[in-house]
């Protein structure tokens, strides 16, 4: 049976209107019990409710902002900003060189949470002044906190509450961190197809590498760095839910997209829990991207090379 993350179950949003929907604690507990996850059921049983057994939305928001604040340390320790720039820098150079694209170039972080990545990029100016930085999340509390932090830090970036694929302006590049494993079954390919059928030129999504050691690594990290049992639980479950390299490349192969994986299994250290990206680029960008990456381009593999690398 697939593993469930508590944070996916205790909030619900209408995907069209963005309105918060009530969630009954008993329903969540039942779902977790049916999956045999009694520990998770006990964690949910300790959350406060109001009338009709509905989980207190303010308490849930406070809890999720707290957990994501602790989770931000994972992005800091894995140097996710630097690693994105290592790829996105050359990718944007390829975009600028290949044609005269509309300006500004627009980077959209899908499911930005507290916006660590967008705020880091804004603070470091790492991608250049012609790149507009936008974080989008369906969760109003998380994206609200992201906007508050950006204001407090005086950063030049924007946060939007809603569906990243409903923005009025087209993205040049979509990115995300720690989001892919939330899409199960056909939803993963649909996620990539939504970007392939948009005017975007590329996407680059980072998620936990599915190695046999990933759940152990995630357990150790979340034990050491996170206090709330919900954060510890979901951290380990997300490593168990991580998609394999093969599954990501298959799902990302949408029409008009060249799917690529950077540092697949076999090219990375299996003792490190890490996030690695799946990319999708318009085919004409592959040659300029490889030129801009130089030697590092050897680490970028398509479906036809994956079998050789992991052998
Ligand atoms: C686990 S969180 C990741 C948060 C953040 N990227 C990080 O690394 O801390 C996944 C988030 O994706 C958001 N999400 C999923 N699909 C989305 C979409 N189509 N548009 C906007 N947000 C989305 C969810 O609301 C959730 O907050």
TrEMBL record:
Provide one Gene Ontology biological process annotation: methylation
InterPro entries for this protein: Methyltransf_25 (IPR041698), SAM-dependent_MTases_sf (IPR029063)
Has UniProt tagged this entry with the keyword Calcium?
no
Q: Which GO terms describe its molecular function?
A: methyltransferase activity
What the entry lists under CDD domains is as follows: AdoMet_MTases (cd02440)
Q: Has keyword Nucleotide-binding?
A: no
Q: Which Pfam families match?
A: Methyltransf_25 (PF13649)
Q: Pinpoint the Methyltransferase domain residues.
A: 108-194
Q: Which SUPFAM superfamilies match?
A: S-adenosyl-L-methionine-dependent methyltransferases (SSF53335)
Task: Quote the Gene3D superfamilies the UniProt record gives.
Answer: Vaccinia Virus protein VP39
- What keyword terms does UniProt attach to this protein? Methyltransferase, Transferase
The identity of this protein, by name, is: Class I SAM-dependent methyltransferase
